[in-house]
Amino acid sequence: MKGKETRRCGRHRRAMDDTLNVFLSFYTRSEKTLDKAEAAFEKIRARVPLETVSLQNRNMVENLVREMQEQKVGLDGATWNNVLRVYADPSKIKEMETFKTLVDEQGINLERSTIVAMARAYNRSGLVQKAIEMYGDVPGTQREVYALWNEYKKEAKDDGYRTMINSLLKLNNVEGAEKVYEEWNPEGPKLDMSIPCLLISRYYAEGMAWKVDEMLKSIKKKRYGMHMRKLRYHTKRMFSNFTYPKITWPYRTNLPDLTVLKESLKVVLTVILGVAVLVAVAVGYV
């Protein structure tokens, strides 16, 4: 318990420091506002209790950013990074993303500590895929990326695999990206070509032509496997829902009903058509 309280207090102090940096970076832009900077510093230190610092910091920063925008005062990169760190909290994900959009529009580079803080906020909010995406922009975070992926991959869809592969490529782990690609079983109904194209683009950039050929062959296999899984699913569902009606004939003789035979024939033809489509995909006609 003591360790948890220590870590919590440490986060609060860092949040306090980030808020002070936002205020001071604004008010120390000129000599006219230097007095305001000193007064703001003392006021925050004196009035904001440690246990409520996170919520009040965000309110202060939000008011400050609004004031700066009204006065058409541009925020520099350091200030924006401080703002994002203050809002890197599960309860303020929406606001954090709003500020992140403004930062991206201005082409401001995020600091490593800012990206890590945002990734942790996403993870604590259950947004694991976005956390993986953020960690992909931080060199040396492969351990964090794999730790999140190992917990998430059982429920990952196509877009989750795309995010993981893209993050590993940005971390220069091509071999790891290839292994994740091999584990990928496309959902369909159409093959998401953006996933293999991530690796193909990397191979082209590094002049690995033979890898491109291998990837093109693997795309056919992925598509074939996708159609096979879909066909098995629909066939199983079709037969599980199909029941033969019980018919009583005169003279106590059970004879086949033409309606039953017709429905059975439709099932057989559907399966044959599905197999024909899969064969066409396998040989490259579709």
* Main sheet summary: none
Q: Please report which band the strand proportion falls in: under 5%, 5-15%, 15-25%, 25-35%, 35-45% or over 45%.
A: under 5%
How would you describe the shape?
elongated
The proportion of residues forming helix, as a percent range, comes to over 70%
How many E-type strands? 0
What is Rg? 29 Å
The mean pLDDT is: 75
> How many angstroms does the end-to-end distance come to?
61 Å
Helical region count? Answer: 13
**Low-confidence segments:** 44-56
- Classification by helices and strands: mainly alpha
Description:
The protein is an all-alpha fold. The chain has a domain at 1-126. The protein is 72% helix and 0% strand. It has 13 helices and no strands. It has helices at 2-27, 34-47, 53-70, 77-86, 93-105, 112-124, 128-135, 142-152, 158-170, 174-183, 194-205, 209-241, 258-283. Helix 10 (174-183) packs antiparallel against helix 11. The longest helix has 33 residues, at 209-241. The model is unreliable at 44-56 (pLDDT under 50).
Brief write-up:
This protein has about 290 residues and is an all-alpha fold. The protein has helices at about 1-25, 35-45, 55-70, 75-85, 95-105, 110-125, 130-135, 140-150, 160-170, 175-185, 195-205, 210-240, 260-285. The chain has a domain at about 1-125.
